[in-house]
Amino acid sequence: MSGSYFLDSNVLIYSFDARAPAKKAAAQALVEKALAEGVGIISFQVVQEFFNVATQRFPEPMSAVEATLYLDRVLMPLCRVFPSAELYRSTLALAERWRYSFFDSLILAAAQAGGCQTLYTEDLQHGQNIEGLRIVNPFNAGAEVATGEPGSSLSGQ
After folding, report:
1. What is the distance between the alpha carbons of residues 126 and 136, in angstroms, rounded to a whole number?
2. For the residues 105-133, what does the mean pLDDT come to?
3. Is residue 150 part of a domain?
4. What are the two backbone dihedrals, phi and then psi, of residue 129, each rounded to the nearest 5 degrees?
5. In angstroms, rounded to a whole number, what is the distance separating the alpha carbons of residues 6 and 8?
6. What are the angstrom distances between the C-alpha of 31 and each of 37, 68, 129?
7. Distance from C-alpha of 128 to C-alpha of 134, rounded to nearest angstrom
């Protein structure tokens, strides 16, 4: 999918964080655009990481009913990368070459497997290019976020 982007779990988590209103707005806008335009994707790992935080560590943890609704309305429509031997091979190669942890490398491999050009995360080095995948911290002042406009958080959507 040309022009597609990958959302790391921290983007989904911040979309619920009332303590960080700027991050929440930027995250919500990225998720909304991903759903509305079909340009954003996530992997099985992001689903798992999101639920680990949402059901246990949110100030008001999601109930099973709320989590199931979010799964059906947001997570599954975005989830396009699932475990495979090839995904794990790519992960191991990325971890060896770039010296990222296994789990960070799994996110990178999933973004590549999804055909993404951009990975939105605050966990990796902003501006780095990993084998054609651009790392963007969407919460970094001046970051180009989905619209290609510097500093845009898409919060007007």
Report:
1. 5
2. 96
3. no
4. -115, 120
5. 7
6. 10, 17, 22
7. 6
d(CA 53, CA 15): 12
Q: Which of 53, 54, 49 is nearest to 65 (CA)?
A: 54
Q: What is the DSSP letter of 115?
A: T
| Number of structural domains in the chain | 1
Question: What is each CA distance from 57 to 16, 54, 60, 74, 97, in whole angstroms?
Answer: 12, 6, 8, 20, 33
The Cα–Cα gap between 56 and 61 comes to: 6
- The string of DSSP codes covering 139-156 is TSTT-B-SS--BT---TT
Contact call for residues 110 and 45 (beta carbons, < 8 A):
yes
Does 156 reside within a domain?
Answer: no
pLDDT tens digit string along 42-83? 999 999 999 999 999 999 999 999 999 999 999 999 999 999
pLDDT in tens, 93-108: 999 999 999 999 999 9
Distance CA 60, CA 48 (A): 18
Range of the domain at 104: 5-136
